[in-house]
Write a structure and sequence with these properties.
Shape: elongated
Distance between the termini: 57 Å
Number of helices: 10
Number of strands: 10
Low-confidence stretches: 89-93
Mean pLDDT: 85
Largest sheet: 6 strands, mixed
Strand order of the largest sheet: 4-3-5-10-6-9
CATH topology of the largest domain: D-Maltodextrin-Binding Protein, domain 2
Strand content: 15-25%
Structural class: alpha/beta
Oligomer: single chain
CATH architecture of the largest domain: 3-Layer(aba) Sandwich
Order of helices and strands: HHHEEHEHEHEEEHEHEHEH
Helix content: 40-55%
């Protein structure tokens, strides 16, 4: 049986990614003649050319494209194996790594953490960021799952999503805005409002609602961070359209008051994960059983 040299495959993958032996040589800290010889050894072993030269550049042959596809899978699987063994998934106290978009209410993150801790004794690592950052971390096996407020985070067929449910959205404000309950939602005209940023789905739904009802508030701030939104609301800087469950504590303590519900405006939350060759039974169990009906 012919053994495939892992290092030869890594050299080939780096050449394919950089587009030249010279650039790959710099990245790998290996001399160009030695790198060319290693590539030739791999091609001889596979029995086919992996690159062809055109216009002073290196281009993958059909065999090279197939080899690169398998090389990526092999290295991803190797990374997955190292991550699983490092985090001791099969030990009594593994680590679960959760990513959350900046726009996710902290109460939902806390709810998920409490659910996981009740279900199994694990160490939990949390990371907040934007879509691109979290997807990169997931691709490199640095995140096990992502809490998102929309499902279409990636075209990658290995990434799947599970809906956790929907929640209604209402406008909240400090005590001084209570008079706006009368004639809601027309009363919102010209009133200061703090909104999510324009790239979020909730912002588009809010804008659509305002347009349909011919309402033109005064937008005083835009932020995706719901904690910042709530702080601004408590400081009486403006009105807040927020998922109802996320402000329960502030309403209970009378720091914020419900002014009125935005009819047909909802926020839906999702758990995003990535299919792996080596299944993590703890992650699978959490994804299958968790929803935020208890939030």
């Amino acid at each position: 049986m012919a053994w495939l040299n892992y290092h030869h495959l890594m050299y080939f993958k780096t050449i394919a990614q950089t587009g030249s032996i010279a650039k790959a040589s710099t990245k790998l800290l290996i001399g160009q003649p030695a790198l060319s010889a290693q590539l030739k050894t791999l091609e001889d072993q596979l029995g086919c050319a992996l690159f062809e030269r055109r216009n002073r550049g290196l281009f993958l042959t059909d065999a090279g494209k197939i080899t690169l596809k398998y090389a990526n899978q092999i290295f991803n699987l190797g990374t997955e194996l190292q991550t699983i063994l490092k985090d001791q998934i099969f030990s009594a106290s593994p680590t679960i790594k959760i990513g959350a978009l900046d726009s996710i209410p902290k109460s939902l993150i806390l709810n998920l953490v409490n659910f996981i801790r009740k279900k199994t004794k694990v160490k939990i690592r949390l990371l907040e960021g934007n879509v691109d950052e979290l997807l990169r971390e997931m691709a490199s096996m640095q995140i096990d799952m992502i809490i998102s407020n929309y499902s279409g985070m990636s075209d990658n067929k290995n990434i799947f999503s599970k809906s956790l449910g929907k929640t209604s959205v209402s406008v909240y404000g400090s005590k001084k805005f209570l008079f706006l309950k009368k004639n809601f939602p027309d009363s919102l005209n010209s009133q200061p409002m703090i909104l999510p940023t324009s790239h979020s789905k909730l912002r588009h739904d809010i804008d659509h609602y305002l347009h349909l009802n011919n309402i033109h508030p005064q937008i005083v701030a835009e932020t995706q961070d719901t904690s910042v939104q709530k702080s601004m609301g408590v400081e009486e800087l403006g009105l807040l359209p927020l998922p109802d469950f996320s402000v329960r504590a502030l309403v209970k303590n009378k720091h914020l008051h419900k002014i009125g519900m935005l009819k047909d405006v909802t926020e839906e939350y999702w758990l995003i994960s990535q299919q792996r060759e080596i299944d993590n039974p703890i992650i699978s169990s959490i994804i299958d059983s968790y929803n935020f009906s208890a939030v």
